[in-house]
Amino acid sequence: MIKTQGLLAQTATYGCAIAVAIITGQQVDHLHPLWIVAIADAAATATVFLFSMYFNNSSMYDPYWSVKPMVIAAYFLSLTDSDPTIRAWVVFGLMQLYGIRLTSNFLRDWPGLHHEDWRYRNFRAQFPKLYWLISFSGIHFFPTLLVYLACIPSYYAIVANDHSMQWLDFLGIVIFGGSIVLSFAADEQMRRFRSIPANKGKIMDQQLWKYTRHPNYLGEVLGWWGLFCFALAVNTEYYWTGAGAVAITLLFYFISIPFMDKRSAERRPGFREYMKKSSSLFPFVYFSRRRA
Known about the structure:
Helix content: over 70%
Number of strands: 0
Structural class: mainly alpha
Shape: globular
Radius of gyration: 20 Å
């Protein structure tokens, strides 16, 4: 019952956010589509933030990272003529699969409104008077900016009128599609591991988690690079659209992963040894270190 109430709250929150985004976008429909998305995106984020304050839980924002690309892809597809390209359908489909997988993974493990991400709770404890300012800027709008930048390649991939598929398109399919499979497999492996009572307190260092401590993060990063390949397939002059993939890669490699590893090392015996035997993100770093 508690989780059901939370899911209803999430549904209402994102329903309102999408409605606000649509209404806002209609008010600025004379602008370039990328500006329309940016403004509508900011309005939707502000809406989710208001719900986060209302429910006193910044984790209301967490599904935004995965819901947003699905909505953006749908909007870009609506801008095409009556005969979207194969590339457009492929990119749209992959972005829907990405969003469905990540959103469903969050909702499966989310216990309800009483739960808030431990990182947000730490911010509350450390900066009680500044918490909502931190939540607004760091938890809500900063990720919104990163994902917006990472989604820019999808505009050129979906809206472009070039019907010919290039080798970069097929590379994008392999990387983006493979990233979804990788993330799904990693999450399921971890879920099965935690479901076994005998594994309580143990470190998951098997299967994909043997070679990288964060295979799910690796899948996340690779997905955005795969999306970037589709923009390059349209025109290599769109190289600048890779800025979002670069930013997200740096975020995970230099901020998110060290933060997670530090906490695990402090709380879980043996984790530091696991760190010596595994890569933080890219498996080939682990292999090269072992050879050395």
